[in-house]
Design brief:
Strand 15 and strand 16 form a beta hairpin. The protein folds into 4 domains: 264 residues, Alpha-Beta Complex (Leishmanolysin, domain 2), CATH 3.90.132.10; 93 residues, Jelly Rolls (Sandwich); 96 residues, Jelly Rolls, CATH 2.60.120.380; 78 residues, no CATH class. It is built from 12 helices and 32 strands.
Length: 624
């Protein structure tokens, strides 16, 4: 059960459900949780930096100009008993023919004795490729390179030394000129404008026997639904002749992604891409020619109940999803508000769920125990909510609890925020923020940039905000009941599922939130979303309501306004002002937030700040 902090800080059970409790609630659907160990570079210190070492016989080769010349290579060459005792070792070699996918440079060593990295340069000194893992070897592919002279630099990470390493340059002699190839029947498709149209794809499609004869092939396709983690574009070739790369573009010609490994296959995920038309660009690296390759596209498709971008929608079946209540300590008028909030969610979720039984009570879809209780008096914690019983398989909840502080209910009802707060808490019972981690949909928890990676919500977010993000920004501030479990306030403004009430009493339920429910496993109706745009979000973030006729507490400025004023205050600056008032401190970095404001904008902001001074002193929850 999570608390609802104040301004009014809306919280849910979202620092995460106790996964052990969830597993016990779904005994026949256990979840195995594992901890991932991520290797990382370790800065050399007195314990892992070798003592003074005697360098090897290939010195002095510490610069590109003094690189050890390995000569013209037509077969693999290995140097052993090498020592990394300084800033780096350089080697150069020459090839007489284009390299293949089997050609490479490999360096072997014991990482615990000193972490070494490897880089490949051309004769002009431009770095072409790099290998900088934390394993006991580093490998740089030579595939797709023209005949010529190249340089290898072996070096210690942050100056690390190593008493022993070996270096192998594997080049296979090939003086045979490749047979000329004839281009395929999809030509001419060498430019974005002449891309071969593959039409609307509703299933995985593979095109084989393609030929790369001119360095560039373009294709375009349309998909009817948002891409998921299972959807992708890929190119592959069994030929060792020529290295192919892959790019994905949107309909306006903006590159969205690239895959440029040195292997025989490239793949780009379509996860988070909205329904629409996309362009695929297949490239022969360094104008490489390949006699045969295949292109595979697994597109996003409209999901059941389809309609808006990213699936979902359609004509909902009345009564298909039902929310039941058991009320305690709530008046009839308050119960009516709960029923109104439930009706909103019932218009959003349209698919019926398997029936269940909770403590002897038959549950159609979701049973909520809603109560008014004494929590902590006026302000601070307004309420708390979360699910506590889950279906096997889907892990969707069939029971949850919502508690509201009786000291705050009347004021929320009076200022018009009660319905939004109840809708918000009900969203957490449904699983928004509370099931994200359990479903594997939260990435970067407890970092500065946590994101929700569900495909439906991400597609809706990218569509509304005009971005190409990998996920939806999740709150990275606040307490344990706020961060990691709400949309990010600084991005979403007054959207229903941010961690704070308002600004104002209008809290729209966006297509992004509806998309997140689809990602959790519900069948949804996007048409039930409230109007919500990037512009409205930004306006909400920087807006404040100024009284119709106000004399400021300083008695220096009098202002009369009848409409909200869009303040030139970034959310960071606004929060800094609140913090400064609360602590009596000053912030020296606020000038950045207002440096681009006009004099008129600055005066309007100052007027509004003074006009709301009394409310400001009473606390952030009073700021409108």
């Amino acid at each position: 059960m999570e608390s609802l902090e104040d301004r009014s800080l809306m919280a849910a059970l979202a620092s995460g459900i106790d996964t052990k409790a969830v597993d016990s609630a779904v005994a026949d659907s256990p979840v195995v949780e594992t901890a991932a160990i991520t290797a990382r570079k370790v800065t050399p210190n007195l314990t892992n930096r070798a003592a003074a070492l005697v360098d090897d016989s290939y010195e002095n080769n510490d610069t590109q100009a003094t690189a050890t010349n390995l000569g013209t290579l037509t077969a693999p060459k290995t140097l052993s008993n090498l020592v990394m005792a300084d800033s780096g070792d350089w080697y150069k070699f020459t090839t007489t023919a284009p390299t293949t996918v089997n050609d490479k440079v490999t360096m072997s060593f014991v990482n615990s004795r000193g972490d070494l990295d490897l880089a490949l340069y051309n004769a002009a000194g431009t770095r072409l490729r790099i290998s900088n893992s934390v394993s006991n070897s580093e490998t740089v592919s030579l595939s797709g390179l023209a005949a010529g002279t190249y340089f290898i630099r072996a070096y210690g990470y942050q100056g690390a030394q190593n008493p022993a390493y070996s270096l192998t340059v594997s080049v296979t002699s090939s003086t045979t000129t490749p047979a000329p190839v004839t281009d395929d029947t999809y030509e001419n498709n060498d430019t974005f404008a002449t891309a071969r149209d593959l039409g609307s794809l509703s299933a995985a499609t593979t095109i084989s026997t393609l030929v790369m004869a001119d360095g560039h092939d373009w294709y375009k396709f349309t998909m009817g639904g948002a891409g998921t983690t299972n959807d992708f574009v890929a190119v592959s070739s069994s030929s060792t002749q020529g290295d192919l790369d892959l790019e994905l573009y949107n309909a306006t010609g903006t590159r969205l992604a690239i895959s440029d490994n040195s292997t025989n296959s490239e793949q780009i995920s379509l996860a988070g891409k909205a329904a629409g038309t996309y362009y695929v660009h297949v490239i022969g690296f360094n104008n490489a020619v390949t006699p045969t390759y295949s292109l595979q596209i697994d597109p996003g498709v409209a999901t059941s109940g389809g309609g808006g971008t990213g699936g979902g929608g359609g004509t909902p079946t009345p009564g298909a999803f039902d929310i039941q209540f058991r009320f305690t300590g709530l008046s009839a008028s308050l119960q009516a508000v709960f029923e109104q909030a439930a009706a909103k969610w019932e218009s959003v979720i349209t698919g019926d769920l398997p029936s269940a039984t909770y403590a002897g009570v038959a549950v159609d879809d979701l049973l909520i125990d809603a109560s008014g209780v004494a929590i902590d008096g006026t302000g601070n914690v307004l309420g708390q909510a979360g699910p506590d019983a889950f279906r096997s398989g889907s892990r969707l909840p069939y029971h949850g609890e919502m508690e509201f502080d009786t000291a705050d209910l009347a004021s929320m009802q009076a200022n018009g925020t009660l319905l939004g707060v109840i809708e918000h808490e009900m969203g957490h019972v449904l699983g928004i923020g509370t099931l994200w981690s359990t479903k594997g949909l939260l990435s970067g928890a407890n970092t500065t940039n946590p994101i929700f990676v569900g495909a439906q919500a991400t597609a809706a977010y990218n569509s509304i905000f005009g971005t190409n993000a990998a996920g939806v920004p999740v709150e990275n501030t606040g307490g344990s009941g706020t961060r990691n479990s709400h949309w990010r306030e600084s991005t979403f403004g007054n959207e229903l599922m941010t961690g704070w009430v308002g600004p104002g009493s209008n809290m729209p339920l966006s297509r992004i939130t509806i998309g997140s429910l689809a990602d959790i496993g519900y069948t949804v109706n996007y048409a039930a979303a409230d109007p919500y745009t990037r512009t409205s979000a930004l306006t909400a973030i920087v807006s404040a309501t100024v009284p119709t006729s106000t004399t400021t507490s300083s008695a220096r400025v009098t202002t009369t306004q009848t409409t909200p004023v869009a303040l030139p205050l970034a959310s960071r600056y606004r929060d800094d002002v609140f913090a400064a008032v609360a602590t009596g401190t000053s912030g020296d970095d606020r000038e950045t937030a207002i440096s681009n404001c006009s004099q008129q904008q600055h005066e309007a902001a100052t007027d509004s700040l003074f006009a709301n001074w009394d409310a400001l002193l009473r606390g952030r929850n009073s700021w409108a």
